[in-house]
Design brief:
This protein is of the alpha/beta class. The protein has 27 helices and 17 strands. The strands form 4 sheets. A 7-stranded mixed beta sheet has the order 9-8-10-11-12-16-17, with helices on both faces. It has a 5-stranded parallel beta sheet with strand order 4-3-5-6-7, sandwiched between helices. A 3-stranded antiparallel beta sheet has the order 13-14-15. A hairpin with a 2-residue loop joins β13 and β14. The longest helix is centred in the C-terminal third of the chain and has 25 residues. The radius of gyration is 33 Å and the shape is globular.
């Protein structure tokens, strides 16, 4: 029989057919059959030096058939590297964690370690990073070829950091700065300082005492001095400048980390001529005067303020055009404008292309508004509190919430912020009831807890069967918690109603609107058990500014007191806007919370938490998140192993 002659179809290259018999074979199927044939034939038919596996399982199968262990391991490392080039770190991890690479040949140890660090950090696999970190020392990267030293050192520092070991991560970068003259000193010093800030004070002090080498001792001494000083920004600036003089030859003295550069120069660059623009007449006069008093009180109690250089001018914005006032101020010798408080005036600034004078607005623009450069926004944002409540619910694994909020534009903003953060935290708002002052709160509460639906269902059953039934309504059973947004007079009615309608076992969370700011134990007993968030000015202990202001000024309690605290924070922010803007992790412990800034110039606040007990608020701790628990467990494991 003559041999078959294969003929390709020119219009269908994926098919071939013999001259006598037509057979269609897909190329992928042919490749699969070929690979299977190779595997069944044994490793002798596969050249691992050139073969490229398509999956991790295929690579492991081929390597397991190779008699030479080092050849098989080299093949797996090459395929793992190829997966990394394709950003498939999951497949690379499968190979790198396989038993076949548990004990790599001596010549492959560094290669495996480098690949493992790359995939562990890319996948943010903390447990794997801890395993890898146990194989490292800060100097491990020095064993790599010159062209890989920088990459190895940075991966090593990232791996240590992911494993919760900031000190050896920082030590790695100290060695890199000494080893690689081509490295970007500013970038390394910034990263190094960020790591040193994460080292606990006792560990830092011990390491500083035992450190060897001029550069290492200098870094640790700088970190110890800055971290252990419970001082303000100005005192920290003096500490940094003194350290620079004492360690003049140190690399960090010549190229300070960016955050320390800002702190060191902050006193020199702070605004000296400030325009405080507030409404002092009309409907916003009470708020304007409270903010003014807080601003000035904080200024006069600030020992770092240079009275001879600082000039604060106060302008009344009520009944005037703020845009015209702003134009006039820009023609004067003004370094910073604090204000306006009015939303409309702030919106007018946002419409300008550029601001000739930096401005700290005392309110917030709508979330979808892009602010112009030089405009900062700070206020007592209800949205910040809503987001903080959503975060606490998630931390306590309460993912399904019922929400009750007053009607109006303010309630709309609270609802939107709460809903958005709940969704981001994988939570859900089961139902939202909005209420007005004139509403029947019994009916509102019954609707919220599903009692109305339960009753309606029973009535429908009675109508259907034509008989009266003995019936006890039941609340909905899918809720984990209640978020109650209500002022004290309303909240004192709602909280007992939750219990009346069978929801007494659900935890209740509220923003600061629930608390008047002064203890009222007889009236607030109905709020017992409610967890709420409020500012340090209201809940914090040992507050020097509050103690002194209360003695000599009125309007430092309740809502005016919160505005007074906002004014005090506005003074401290006026000195630190460049720091918050340019350093990502910079923060200020203020009277209204822990203050940070977004890239858009919005000041966010993290407040304290309290719970009503016997009619009075008692400060409670932040919730322990799963991440914090895992970090604590890892730290405990490290301590036990030492």
């Amino acid at each position: 029989m003559p041999p078959l002659v294969w003929r390709y179809k020119p219009n269908h290259p994926e098919y071939v057919e013999p001259a006598m018999i037509k057979i269609r074979i897909h190329q992928r199927a042919l490749a699969s059959l070929f690979a299977a044939a190779l595997l069944s034939a044994g490793c002798a038919t596969v050249n691992l030096e050139t073969h490229v596996a398509q999956t991790a399982d295929q690579a492991l199968e081929l390597a397991s058939n190779e008699d030479n262990i080092e050849t098989a391991q080299a093949y797996l490392l090459r395929i793992a590297s190829r997966f990394q080039d394709q950003s498939d770190h999951t497949a690379a991890r499968t190979l790198l964690q396989s038993p076949q690479l548990a004990q790599p040949a001596p010549g492959l140890v560094n290669q495996k370690l480098l690949l493992a660090m790359a995939s562990a950090t890319a996948l943010e696999d903390g447990s794997w990073a801890q395993e890898i970190a146990n194989e490292l020392t800060p100097s491990t990267f020095v064993d790599y070829p010159a062209d890989l030293i920088s990459r190895a050192a940075n991966l090593q520092a990232d791996t240590y950091s992911l494993a919760g070991k900031p000190m050896p991560a920082a030590m790695t970068l100290m060695l890199l700065a000494q080893t690689d003259n081509t490295a970007n000193a500013q970038q390394i010093h910034n990263q190094l300082w960020s790591l040193l800030q994460q080292v606990p004070e006792n560990e830092l002090s011990s390491a500083s005492t035992d450190a060897l080498g001029y550069e290492t001792k200098g870094w640790l001494e700088l970190a110890r001095l800055v971290q252990t000083q419970e001082a303000g920004i100005d005192e920290q600036g003096r500490i940094i400048r003194r350290w620079q003089n004492d360690w003049a030859g140190h690399p960090a003295a010549q190229v300070l980390p960016s955050k320390l550069q800002l702190i060191a120069t902050l006193a020199e660059s702070r605004p000296e001529k400030i325009a405080l623009t507030l409404p002092l007449e009309g409907p916003l006069a009470t708020a304007g005067k409270a903010i003014r008093d807080g601003f000035l009180a904080a200024y006069y109690l600030d020992d770092s303020a240079d009275r001879s250089e600082t000039d604060i001018r106060i302008f009344d914005t009520s009944g005037t055009s703020f845009s015209e006032l702003y134009r006039q101020l820009t023609e004067q010798d003004i370094d910073l404008i604090v204000g306006p408080l009015e939303k409309e005036a702030l919106a007018g600034l946002a419409s300008m292309h550029t601001l000739p004078v930096p401005t700290l607005g005392l309110n917030y623009l709508p979330a979808d508004t892009t602010p112009t450069e030089g405009l900062y926004q700070f206020g007592l944002s209800a949205e910040d509190e809503a987001r903080q409540i959503a975060d606490r619910l998630a931390a306590e694994q309460l993912y399904q919430a019922l929400v009750i909020i007053p009607d109006g534009e303010w309630g709309d903003r609270v609802e939107a912020a709460l809903q958005k953060r709940m969704v981001a935290n994988s939570g859900v708002v089961l139902d939202i009831e909005r209420f007005a002052r004139e509403d029947n709160l019994r009916a509102v509460t019954a609707d919220l807890l599903g009692i109305t639906v339960s009753r309606d269902r029973a009535i429908q059953v009675e109508r259907t069967i034509g008989m009266n039934l003995e019936f006890e309504p039941r609340r909905r059973q899918d809720a984990d918690a209640i978020v109650m947004v209500a002022e004290p007079t309303v909240a004192r009615q709602l909280k007992p109603l939750f219990a009346f309608y069978f929801g007494g076992g659900l935890p209740v969370y509220s923003p600061s609107i629930i608390y008047e700011g002064t203890p009222a134990t007889s009236r607030d007993r109905d709020l017992n058990g409610v967890i709420f968030t409020d500012i340090p000015w209201v809940l914090g202990d040992m507050n020097q500014l509050r103690a002194r202001a209360t003695k000599s000024l009125s309007g430092t309690r309740g809502q005016p007191g919160r505005l007074f605290a906002m004014g005090a924070d506005a003074w401290h922010l006026s000195k630190r806007l460049p720091l918050l803007k340019q350093v990502e992790d910079a923060s200020i412990s203020g009277q209204t919370g822990l203050l940070t800034m977004t890239p858009e110039g919005r000041i966010h606040r993290e407040q304290l938490w309290a719970q009503f007990q016997s009619g009075a608020p008692e400060v409670i701790a932040e919730p322990i998140t799963e991440e914090a628990e895992s970090e604590a467990a890892a730290e405990a494991g490290t301590t036990d192993s030492q």
